[in-house]
Write a structure and sequence with these properties.
Layout (H helix, E strand, L loop, with lengths): L6 H18 L3 H7 L4 H9 L18 H14 L1 H21 L2 H13 L4 E4 L15 E4 L3 E12 L6 E7 L9 E7 L5 E6 L10 E12 L10 H37 L1 E2 L2 E2 L4 H30 L4 H26 L10 H10 L7 H14 L1
Parallel strand pairs: 1-4
Antiparallel strand pairs: 2-3, 3-7, 4-5, 6-7, 8-9
Helix pairs in contact: 1-4, 4-5, 4-7, 5-6, 5-7, 7-8, 7-9, 7-10, 8-9, 9-10, 9-11
Length: 380
């Protein structure tokens, strides 16, 4: 067992940390308040290679391993989870899905621009009646010979208005159930494709989350990913890697809140001494540190499994389940350590507490992760 990062991984981690402090921290409270998408910051992350980290350089990516991606996600998320989720979706869901299962033509046309950050993508699975139950797709893609006609609504889509390319999961053969689902590449601006109002969210308010409406959108056959009926498998395989990205986001939120709380406890005085000297606070910090370290190694193990070519269904699910729990618990405790100041926006921890909650919900709720884990452990 080797827990040492390579020199390259250390450099990538430091680069992400430097970028987060220099580019994401200024204005992060204002962007949260105004629900403002971090357009300039996303553009700069593309220039640094953060938007296609694991994509082969042949297609415009950085050609890095999953652990490097996780390290980047952690550092970005310590400062601004609204920006890091853009990185997560573009890397884990959109770029990964296209590189792993797309045709050469699709990679040339879409992946190169996505991996370089020239454009960003969105992954469209959830619906009003199909969140956790991904088999119940109501969006339809009716086969018309040389094209599909797409109709339906997708909900809670990250990068909903900012994306240029959308990977849409839709039902083609209703009688076949989940075996009749397809994954289609939809471009912004296609006739009949409308973007609904922006969601007014509890957390990650800088990320633009929208509903998408498809009214008789004509999708060329060459925009289908994989064989006919491959859509559900595509979604599940892609989401398995997406969990690692969100686990890293949760880890970063927790670590960022912990660092703020620790530093504050060394400065804030009560009863004649810094509050870090009171056992009630010191023990909170001890618990936070221990839980974050445990979460970190679950996340790193999942990334390692993916890089080794191992099955990472269970390790990814465990990482997301535990890291999201730690993010929620740590941010709540961070607010408590800050006391009244923790309830005030300028100290950041209240935003982190709001941001933490979504990590227990999107890309598979905690309950879904437990289903994945339990099914895997009960097989043996």
């Amino acid at each position: 067992m080797n827990f040492t990062l390579t020199e390259e991984q250390e450099m990538i981690k430091q680069a992400a940390k430097d970028f987060a402090h220099a580019e994401l921290l200024p204005g992060v409270i204002d962007r949260d308040e105004k629900q403002q998408f971090p357009s300039e910051q996303v553009k700069k992350m593309g220039e640094l290679g953060f938007m296609g980290m694991m994509v082969d350089p042949e297609y415009g990516g950085s050609g890095l391993d999953t652990l490097s991606y996780v390290l980047t996600m952690e550092e970005l998320s310590k400062i601004d989870a609204s920006s890091s989720v853009v990185v997560s979706v573009n890397n884990s869901l959109v770029c990964y899905g296209l590189e792993s299962f797309g045709s050469e033509e699709q990679k040339e046309k879409y992946l190169k621009k996505l991996a370089s950050g020239e454009i960003i993508g969105a992954f469209c699975l959830s619906e009003p009646e199909a969140g956790s139950d991904a088999t119940s797709q109501k969006t339809t893609a009716i086969d018309k010979g040389d094209h599909y006609v797409l109709n339906g609504t997708k909900n809670w889509i990250t990068n909903g208005n900012s994306a240029s390319v959308y990977l849409v999961i839709a039902q083609t053969h209703i009688k076949k159930g989940y075996k009749g689902i397809n994954a289609l590449i939809v471009e912004k601006g296609m006739p009949g494709f409308e973007i609904g109002p922006k969601e007014n969210k509890l957390g990650i308010r800088g990320s633009d989350t929208h509903s998408l409406i498809f009214n008789d959108v004509k999708i060329p056959k060459e925009n289908r990913i994989g064989e006919d009926g491959f859509g559900f498998k595509f979604a599940m395989k892609t989401l398995a890697g997406g969990r690692i990205g969100i686990a890293a986001q949760a880890l970063g939120i927790a670590a960022g809140a912990y660092e703020l709380a620790k530093n504050y406890s060394k400065e804030r005085r009560a009863f004649g001494t810094e509050i870090a000297n009171h056992q009630a606070i010191a023990f909170k910090l001890a618990d936070m540190h221990t839980q974050i370290e445990a979460a970190r190694y679950l996340v790193y193990k999942a990334a390692w499994d993916k890089d080794q070519g191992n099955n990472y269904d269970i390790s990814g699910a465990m990482a997301k389940l535990y890291a999201s729990q730690v993010a929620m618990e740590t941010t709540v405790e961070a607010v408590q350590i800050f006391g009244g100041n923790g309830f005030v926006k300028e100290y950041h921890v209240e935003r982190m507490m709001r941001d933490a909650k979504i990590t227990q919900i999107y890309e598979g709720t905690s309950e879904i992760q437990k289903i994945v884990i339990s099914r895997n452990i009960l097989k043996n």
